[in-house]
Amino acid sequence: MAATGLQVKYFTFNPFQENTYVLCDSTKECVVIDPGCADKQEQQELKQFIQSEGLKVVRLLNTHCHIDHVLGNKFVADTYGVPLEIHEEDLAVLRAVPTYSAAYGFPQYQEILPEKFLKEGENVSFGETELEILFTPGHAPGHVVFYHPQSKNLIGGDVLFQRSIGRTDLPGGDFNTLIQSIRSKLFTLPEDVTVYPGHGPSTTIGEEKASNPFLS
Question: Where in this chain does the record put each Metallo-beta-lactamase domain (predicted)?
């Protein structure tokens, strides 16, 4: 176990190749972020890991509520008895999912609504870990990211990718807002912070400052 005690495990789920994250520490308490598991096999893979590591799921968090990040919300909530937590500004995005899920090939999507709202300036606590909540709209109106200063890990959703940024052509998206979020919230973090995005490989703040074509 690393000195910081935080472990980051990810799974790549569904046809959108979305990254689902499980964060845990030495207490074995864990949080599930953006469960994208879309079928029984993917649900089983997530459940198997949690079981084999002897973890206790205590929080269910969404960075934002586009379909590829919420497909497994109901499964996680029902299996582990945890309420969904999102930013209030993304509630409309979540409510819209059933209106287009079948068209995207997910007629089996089951809606679950949040019982708690995440706010910037508050922390997500589990075990011995505290994650800072940063409000980063632009890709989605209620997008948040989760930052762990001690281990310099950031669960970034669809804000910043390796050499890319989140798309802004979906409802509630705005390019200038997204760039502002990245510059004011992410690029002010230390350069050696690891960014774990919602799709694709991890990167660092320093790498993206130096070579991201959207932010040069």
Answer: 17-199
